[in-house]
Amino acid sequence: MSSNVTHAKEPLFRMVKRDAIPQKKAWMIRAAAFLLSLATGAVVIMMLGHNPFSVYISMIKGAWGTKTVSYETIKIAIPLLITAIGISFAFKMKFWNIGAEGQILVGAVAAGAFGLFTAHIFPKIPLVILMMLAAIVAGGLYGLLPAVCKAKWGTNETLFTLMLNYIALAFIKYLMNGPWKAPGSSYPKIAMLVPGARLTKVFGVHWGWILALILVVVSYIYFNKTKQGYEIAVVGESNNTARYAGINVGRVFRRTMFLSGALCGLVGMLQFAGSDFTITEGTAGGVGFTAITVAWLAKMNPAGMLVVSVFIAMLERGANAIQTQFALFADFEEVAGRLKDSGIQTKRQTELQQEMLEVSNQLSGYQNKREQLYNDYVDSILSAGDYIALKTHFDTAYQEQSSRLNQLSVELARLNRMLSDENKWLVNIRNIRKARKLTPEIAQAMIDHINVYKTGYAQHRLEIIFRFQEERDVLEAVYHEMEGGEPQ
Fold first, then answer.
1. Are 356 and 467 in contact (CB under 8 A)?
2. How remote is the C-alpha of 218 from its chain's centroid?
């Protein structure tokens, strides 16, 4: 008696979540990922016609090559580090605070309320303290709002905090166009902070970097050595377990989110009083979202966040340098588009040059034939019938050359459009500069680079115009002579 036994077929690949991974293997995986990212970048750079080693070295030099660029790199790292520490408070208890951008903007506005309108009343030190306290309280309250709603009604904190970003951004636009608009300015902007109220520099950078280092130490102690840090960890593991242990989960939500928002608000004050000296839509500058990457890569470890934030600041500063030096682009969409446009441009320019050469050769031949035709006609060597036949032949040739000249017109229009595109790039760079996302040196270097690029196209366009006009004049002269006129 036989029995039918069905055996499940084993899949070729299976994905199983690991409970744990050895630390050595984890670092090997990270190292492999880092090397693969470098290799991928090298392939793209080579496709653009550059040496990857030269580009990577220039990127490092662009971030640390001189004191000036080193200071700029540190200025980028400061808000990243403090914001990453701030959102890690929320992330450790699995409260997904995606509203750091809004909390930064609210902190900047609170600091601006004192910095812009009371600088003539308070001395510098009390004024800076007031700006700090106002930014901390405003950012903390803005972070507290979603925590209260989460604790009371169980709202989704991800959507709540994300939407608060847009409310803060809309409020900034209102201030720029309304009550805080700079007097006498036709452009919607907020006035600059007076020099006497700006943060003092320590070793070339405002003292925010000292505060950031202090916060690294304080947050590490808070997370690992205090009761409040332990409560955050327990709530992050399980809300029900925390309640069973007697922890007031709602209170932990409110306290921790206030601290998270307060640190982000502090970043807004540092950006306003130490870096931008005004408030714009770009004051946060994507720091709130980039800081999420910093916090996750560091696994919520404050010391790790210090390393990661400096590394990302180096990449951002170095990317600006290689954009200027090698005409590379930070956005992959731009890279892909420019690769495509570069190939089309080179091909079309070659075709255009060949077409112009052919037309020039044909016109030279027609010029010689025109002289011979006229001489034969004057010497009565050429009969009326032959003249008509040759006239018909030249009419046909004229039509063919006119068609070619029309092709040149199309290419000329294309170059005009490309020149217009370069003008748009200049406008975009100037707008980015106004939004305080680029240093004056980098913005000017990029503008100078595009101006050179633009000048080359302008010269090429003028050459085509002159050649086009010369060729058309010659053809018109030949045609009018065959109609019975005399040679010019």
1. yes
2. 33
Strands 205-206 and 201-202: antiparallel
What are 190's strand-pairing partners? 181
CB 253 within 8 A of CB 261: no
Q: What is the largest CA-CA distance in the chain?
A: 121
Q: How far apart are CA 224 and CA 235, in angstroms?
A: 14
Q: Would you give the DSSP letter of residue 331? A: S
Separation CA 270–CA 273 (nearest Å): 5
Q: What tokens does 52 get?
A: 């990857």
**Residue 127 amino acid letter:** L
- Phi, psi dihedral angles at 297 (to 5 degrees): -65, -35
DSSP H or E run through 36: helix 23-47
Per-residue tokens: 12: 């070729």
Rg (CA), the chain: 34
Task: Give yes or no for a contact between 134 and 106, defined as CB atoms under 8 angstroms apart.
Answer: no
Q: Minimal CA–CA distance to 104: which of 158, 164, 53, 193?
A: 164
Interior angle at CA 430, CA 428 and CA 436, nearest 5: 105
For 95, 264, 271, 287, 372, the CA distances from 98, given in Å and listed in that order, are 9, 11, 19, 11, 82
Lowest mean pLDDT among 13-27, 158-172, 466-480: 466-480
Instruction: With a cut of 70, say whether residue 314 has pLDDT above it.
Output: yes
To which H or E segment does residue 212 belong?
A: helix 208-225
The answer to whether residues 133 and 81 touch, using CB atoms and an 8 Å cutoff, is no
pLDDT tens string 31-67: 898 899 999 989 988 887 788 898 899 889 888 988 8
- Residue 103 CA to residue 264 CA, distance in Å, equals 6
